[in-house]
Specification:
The structure holds two protein chains of two kinds. Chain A is mostly helical. Chain A has two domains: 31 residues; 221 residues, no CATH class. By secondary structure, chain B is an all-alpha fold. Chain B folds into two domains: 261 residues, Up-down Bundle (Cytochrome Bc1 Complex, Chain C); 118 residues, Helix Hairpins (Orthogonal Bundle), CATH 1.10.287. In chain B, strands 1-2 form a two-stranded antiparallel ribbon. In chain B, helix 4 packs across helix 5, helix 5 crosses helix 11 and helix 12 runs antiparallel to helix 13. Classes of the chains: A mainly alpha, B mainly alpha. At the A-B interface, helix 1, helix 10 and helix 14 of A face helix 4, helix 5, helix 11 and helix 15 of B.
């Protein structure tokens, strides 16, 4: 009984200390932010308009393909990554998957005014402009048509890696994805991206370990909430695409997670058996002591 | 030369040459431990086991780790964590054991303080134990640098900077420790050497010394009763095991240790697999970057109390800079535990619950250490800074009060 009391005191003191230095301290260092919003309520999006994909095709092909490739529709990339980064500041994305990975209202708002939809107006205060011009001069219906077209041509299924490549890799590398081949470096060369962003966007190989899954979702959904003033744009991912990206980061950065969760219980079962035998042996040894 | 006869077994052959039967008696079957003990007496074996886990997992990690600023981070987080079979397991075991070993050290230390197991002949047990604590701290700090993450780098920066506060030679000392003007490749490589060679060797030597210091004064017991070990051993050996106040180390004492160890290992491996972030800080999975200072710099949890003593004195007093006051307090905090046997002026060995004033002193110390630990991690702004200051000041007052407190107890008992 006395041993149990002492044990309870030891456990209580350890738990109080643990609570103080982990959950409590972290709540003080990283105040909670509002939950991620995948409907992008704050943007001036489609406002309920239904688009016509066929009309959108003409609009997209005449307005967008001068800079953007759409490989799947026969509009190849006109320059290699280094040259287009030098020309635009950052490699413009291929539009083939945009209709799937970006939320429709966000996409409409971005086409109208990229910098404000992406929440990076603070980057363009001294006369600099976002590399993509805004299309707010178009009719709302035309914008809706373009979004409908982009949704129409988008693939129905994408791998986690494909979503990552289209949504993140223009700026971010994830080198552990291909340590030997180097194919998972950022598409935009380091010197261009550094000039464009003002800092080199971090390699994301270990972000699944250095940030929690919850933090990653809140951050990607709206970077300004956790890091006010960051030059990382809000990209307007759907929850589904964002989940695929986080899953890819986990495949690369925590590749042994399933092995870990499978092996853990086996270790613990073995140790419980060890502990039972140890207590039985102890009882046997101490039987003649009292 | 001694005369050797033909041996009938390997055991006998060894006994002739190494006297293993006697050795076994002296070290194991007739090494006497008091019977009146609780599970806190098992912490030594827990520590020895955790140290073995650290050594074994460390050997595996060393096979792939590269102590070079350009390679270190990826050698840990890519090669060991993603590529090598079960590399992640050894890394988690090493990281979690390094953290848990301090939890057990603290339990072991405060058990010693509570039961007064540091005085009247047991001073060397305490001193060798505190030397172990210090070398373990150095090993923990040097090991934390090796993955070369953000916190590795910035912790190294902050801690090596402290030596700049040493009068006269401070600046030269910092350069000498770093091997560079900055925390750089030379720093990483030498801390690697300290972590995998010099400190483990010193620790092993100190563990030997620590065990040896127990020989003559013997292990204390729950009621701090003065036991005649020879007479009690006689009783035990004559078969009166029920009345004897002692038990042999092997197998009776160790059987209890192993039972406690069983529970401990369940806890430890649960942390290794499912709850490791407190020990392997997520912040350190960002590679070291000398251009980006992390928003919050803090050491591992087991250093937080002394870090807060350092940081608590945040204002200048007259011509003395806050940094120097903090550093002096930090030096005090790290040296004062070593002196406990001499600060305690009560000549009797008694558990704290039989020393009224000391009992209060003990729990105030525990509360203060927990407050220091928690506030050591919180951002030192607003009220936090003042709570930290009060707790740091209290820490010093608590230790200055120990001679008086212990004297009062002795006086009350009429000594």
């Amino acid at each position: 009984m006395r041993e149990l009391k002492i044990f309870a005191v030891v456990v209580a003191l350890s738990l109080i200390t643990y609570w103080g230095v982990e959950p409590f301290a972290h709540s003080q260092m990283h105040p909670a932010v509002p939950a991620a919003d995948y409907t992008f309520k704050d943007v001036d999006g489609l406002n309920g308009l239904k688009g016509d994909a066929q009309a959108g095709a003409t609009l997209v092909q005449s307005n967008c393909t001068a800079c953007h490739s759409i490989e799947s529709q026969g509009f190849p990339q006109l320059m290699d990554n280094a040259s287009s980064a030098a020309a635009y500041g950052v490699v413009p994305p291929d539009l083939g998957s945009s209709g799937k990975i970006y939320q429709a209202d966000y996409l409409a708002a971005f086409i109208k005014d990229p910098a404000s939809a992406a929440k990076v107006l603070h980057k363009y205060e001294d006369g600099e402009v976002h590399p993509m011009p805004g299309y707010a001069w178009m009719e709302p219906q035309e914008i809706a048509d373009m979004v409908a077209y982009l949704q129409d041509i988008a693939p129905k299924e994408m791998t986690n890696k494909e979503v990552f490549a289209d949504a993140c890799q223009r700026c971010h590398g994830i080198k552990y994805g291909d340590m030997l081949g180097g194919s998972m470096a950022s598409f935009t060369p380091a010197e261009n991206i550094n000039a464009y962003m003002g800092t080199t966007p971090p390699d994301l190989s270990q972000y699944i370990r250095s940030r929690s899954v919850n933090f990653l979702h809140e951050f990607i959904n709206d970077p300004q909430k956790h890091l006010e003033g960051t030059s990382m744009p809000r990209v307007g991912l759907t929850l589904e695409s964002e989940t695929q990206i986080v899953a890819y980061m986990e495949e690369i950065g925590d590749s042994k997670k399933s092995e870990r969760s499978e092996l853990g219980p086996k270790f613990l079962i073995y140790l419980v058996i060890f502990a039972i035998f140890a207590w039985l042996w102890k009882a046997k040894q101490w039987r003649d002591m009292h | 030369m001694a005369k050797f006869e033909k041996a009938n077994s390997v055991g006998e052959w060894l006994d002739q040459r190494l006297n293993t039967t006697l050795l076994n008696k002296v070290m194991m079957t007739e090494y006497w431990i008091p019977k009146n003990i609780n599970f806190l007496w098992a912490m030594g074996v827990l520590l020895a086991t955790t140290f073995v886990i650290l050594i074994v997992s460390g050997i595996f990690l060393m096979m792939y780790y590269k102590p070079d600023v350009n390679l270190a981070f990826d050698s840990v987080n890519y090669t060991i964590m993603q590529e090598v079979a079960f590399g992640w397991l050894f890394r988690h075991m090493h990281g979690v054991a390094a953290s848990v070993v301090f939890l057990v050290i603290y339990i072991h230390m405060f058990t010693g303080i509570y039961y007064g197991s540091y005085k009247q002949g047991r001073e060397m047990i305490w001193i060798s134990g505190m030397l172990l604590f210090m070398t373990f701290s150095a090993a923990g700090f040097s090991g934390y640098m090796l993955p070369w993450g953000q916190m590795s780098y910035w912790a190294a920066m902050v801690i090596t900077n402290l030596f700049g506060g040493v009068p006269v030679i401070g600046d030269a000392l910092v350069v000498w420790i770093r091997g560079d003007f900055n925390v750089a490749d030379a720093t990483l490589t030498r801390f690697f050497m300290l972590h995998v060679f010099l400190l483990p060797v010193v620790i092993m030597g100190l563990i030997g010394l620590h065990f040896y210091t127990l020989r003559i004064p013997h292990v204390n017991n729950q009621d701090s009763e003065d036991i005649d070990f020879d007479a009690e051993a006689e009783k035990y050996l004559s078969g009166n095991t029920k009345d004897a106040k002692v038990i042999p180390f092997w197998p009776v004492f160790i059987s209890k240790d192993l039972a406690v160890l069983g529970i401990f290992l369940i806890f430890y491996f649960y942390l290794v697999f499912f709850h490791y972030e407190f020990a392997i800080d997520p912040v350190n999975f960002d590679p070291a970057d000398s251009m980006v200072t992390p928003a919050h710099i803090y050491p591992e949890w087991y250093f937080l109390w002394s870090y807060e003593v350092l940081r608590g004195f945040f204002f200048d007093v007259g011509p003395i800079k806050a940094f120097d006051i903090g550093l002096a307090a930090f030096g005090f905090a790290n040296a004062i535990f070593l002196l406990i046997p001499f600060l305690d002026r009560d000549p009797a060995i008694l558990p704290a619950h039989r020393r009224p004033m000391f009992f209060i002193w003990f729990w105030i110390l525990m509360i203060d250490l927990i407050v220091l630990t928690i506030w050591g991690k919180l951002p030192p702004t607003g009220t936090n800074a003042y709570i930290g200051f009060a707790a740091a000041l209290a820490f010093i007052v608590i230790f200055l009060a120990l001679p008086i407190v212990s004297k009062l107890d002795a006086k009350k008992r009429g000594v």
